[in-house]
C-alpha cells in the first residue's frame, strides 16, 4: 500500500496545478460565452431575468439592428482591416529600427536617444497642439494616414524590443560586418529573424491598438467612407442610448418597442472582437516568450 501511495502523493501537486489552470481557463471562457449568449437573447428577457450562459429566448434583433446597413458596415470593416494591417507593418518596422539602434553598444548616442524615447512616455504635446499640427500643418485630416501615423512609434514597445535585441550576441553582428554585410542586410536578415518572439508580441499589441481605436476617427474623420468599425459601433451605441433615454421624443408607434440596448452592445462586442480572436492563435507560440523579455533584462 505504501508503494502505491507514493506516486499518488507525488501527483497531488500536479493535479492541483492542473485544477487551478482549468478554473482560470473557465474564468476566461465563461464571460465570452455569456457575451455571445446575451447577443442572441431577447432584450425584454435580459431586462427581466438578467444575463445567462445560454439564451432563454433566442432573438436576432440585436444583429438585425447592427447589420441594418451591411454595405456601410463592410466598408468600416475594410477601413479597420486596412489600417490595422498597414499600420502594424509600418509600426513594427519603424520601432524595430529604433530599438535595434538603441541596442547597439557601439552607438555613442544611444543614451541620449533612450532618454528621448523614455521622456515621451511621461509627457506629450497635449490635445490642442496635436490637433492643430495634424489638421492645419500636416493636412492629414480626413485621410487614412491620420489613423496610422500617430501609433507608428510607441515608446513602451520600443523599449521592449530594445531589451529583446540586447540579448542577441554582438559578436554575430561583428562577424557579419567583417564579412562585408551592410547595416540593412544585418538588420533584415540577421536581427529581425532572431527577434521574432519580440516582434510578434509587439505586432499583436500594435494590431490590437489600431483595431480598437476610435478616438482618432472621432477627432479627425468626417467622411463616411473613412469611418472605421469601432467608431461606427460607438455611434450606433450612442444612438441606442439616446433613443432609450428619450422615449418621449419617439414617434407614438415606437414608444412600446424595446430597443436592443444590452443585446446590441454584446453583438457589437462579438463583431469587433471576432477578427482579433481569429488572429491571436498565429501569435500564440511567440506571445509568452516575448512578454517575459522585459522581466529578464531591462
Automatic annotation (TrEMBL):
Protein keywords: Cell membrane, Membrane, Transmembrane, Transmembrane helix, Transport
Recorded topology in the membrane: Multi-pass membrane protein
Cited PROSITE patterns: ABC_TM1 (PS50928)
Cited SUPFAM superfamilies: MetI-like (SSF161098)
Localization of this protein: Cell membrane
Residue ranges of domain ABC transmembrane type-1 in the record: 77-283
Pfam short name (any one): BPD_transp_1
GO CC annotation: plasma membrane
Entry-linked InterPro entries: MetI-like, MetI-like_sf
Superkingdom in the source lineage: Bacteria
Membrane-spanning intervals of the chain: 15-38, 80-103, 115-138, 144-165, 186-211, 264-283
GO BP annotations, alphabetical order: transmembrane transport
PANTHER family xref list: ABC TRANSPORTER PERMEASE PROTEIN MG189-RELATED-RELATED, POLYGALACTURONAN_RHAMNOGALACTURONAN TRANSPORT SYSTEM PERMEASE PROTEIN YTCP
Family the UniProt entry places it in: Belongs to the binding-protein-dependent transport system permease family.
Protein name: Carbohydrate ABC transporter permease
Species annotation: Paenibacillus montanisoli
